Amino acid sequence: MKIKKEKTAKTSLAYTAKNGYEKISPATRKHSDQINRLYMDFLAKGKTEREAHDEAIALLEAAGFKNMAANEKSGARLRPGDKVYRSCEGKTLMAVTIGKRPLADGMHIVGGHTDAPRIDIKQNPLYENSGLALLDTHYYGGIKKYQWVTIPLALHGVFVKPDGKKVKVCIGENPADPVFCITDLLPHLGADQGKKTLSEGIEGENLDAIVGSAPVAEKDRKEKFKYNVLKLLHERYGVKEEDFLSAELELVPANPPREAGLDRSMVLGYGQDDRVCAYTALKALLDVPGTPEYTSVVLLCDKEEIGSVGSTGMAANFFENSAAELLNLTTDKYSELTLKRAMANSWMLSADVNALFDPLYPAVSEKKNTAVMNHGVCVTKYCGSRGKSGSSDASAEFIAHIRRIFDRGGVTWQTGELGKVDQGGGGTIAYLMARYGMKVIDCGVGLLSMHAPMELAGKLDIYMAYKGYLAFLKDGRK
């Protein structure tokens, strides 16, 4: 009798990251295209943090999520499987599916942000000069100012009247709408400007947008060009100049997101930092099947681009207060000690973007430790700058947990860092959550042209972010 020799699989000791398209099935690619179409629709509708917040709530309510404020008012208990959300000033949002385990055992949290670099309108902005009406501005977040001149801009935001009435503004997105622009010098007259550095060539106080050039037809009217703009705004929105004092208005690129490349393998659009992670996290929560083992939480926060400050930023107590409300509605005996245990026992993916290797600018990256397009969602152990300053630096033990969850979930993923050592750096909300003792790591989509008016992402990376967040939210800890 012959004894058959068992075939043993050859295992390589070496690790090589691969392009995700090398192992993706036709069915998975079809699902990826579907997720990316939904994402592009969200990106087009949510060009400001307020709009992204409102669009997220529309998606949540369509999926059966209820406003947690009703429970807080009535005291009605939350039970495993219940789906709720909690809003902060119409900008920051927490969405939750209550898990089987008590909150004290911890939560699985995915947290991104929906604010993006832009041009804000000042509180007393409208003026005229030399037959032109202009809006005075102040840029928001880290931008290269020269990228924002001569491109079509749309005006988004809200006027809030003294009686509390909100008037939403959106001009420049409809093809029939006018757009706005910030001018630049012609090259013929730009000799002195050309001698300046890129950061000095366009000054912040010169980022004023032209909004009109026709005077009102009134002989005795002063500042006719400015007044004509006020008249048009009043006709369309019922506002007057004084209403700018209590307004939040933003200039953003008027272009819609588009598929990029002849193979349509990429997405080009404004605000992908960090709405690409915000949407994929939200979609993952909507798609968590049944009741998860641990309470699943998605945070979509504001003010990350300027340091997570203010009442709607993650440096504020919104999440801690919301977790306290959750605990109060899911346990018979609330205590601060139980809340602290819930926070410390939680796991979190800080869902923010990273920089992709750019072959046109290879000198700023160390290639073997930089994310590459379509190699999957990027896991970043540490951000910060110089000697890891400002970084939470995730532990090896937690990274091992994430490896297991992603590998078990069939997630294509890679690791990355933000440029060479001493080249620069950056940060996310990770360190703000790590202070509670919870396990946190950065995990998001890699981008080219980050913080530019139009950013570029790979569709496969977007899909794998969704798939990774879904695996994390629904997975246990075995």
Describe the structure.
With 478 residues, this protein is of the alpha/beta class. The chain has two domains: 20-116 and 270-474, Aminopeptidase, CATH 3.40.630.10; 118-253, Aminopeptidase i, Domain 2. Helices cover 28% and strands 23% of the residues. The protein contains twelve helices and 22 strands. The chain is globular. It starts with 25 loop residues before the first helix and ends with a helix. The relative contact order is 0.17. The model has no long low-confidence stretch (mean pLDDT 94).
Helix content: 25-40%
CATH class of the largest domain: Alpha Beta
Query: What would you report as the Rg, rounded to the nearest angstrom?
Result: 24 Å
Give the total of beta strands.
22
Number of domains: 2
Provide the CATH topology of the largest domain: Aminopeptidase
Class by SSE composition: alpha/beta
Distance between the termini: 43 Å
Strand order of the largest sheet: 1-2-3-13-4-14-20-16-18
Do you know the CATH architecture of the largest domain?
3-Layer(aba) Sandwich
Shape: globular
Full CATH superfamily name of the largest domain = Zn peptidases
Number of helices: 12
Low-confidence stretches: none
Q: Beta-strand percentage? A: 15-25%
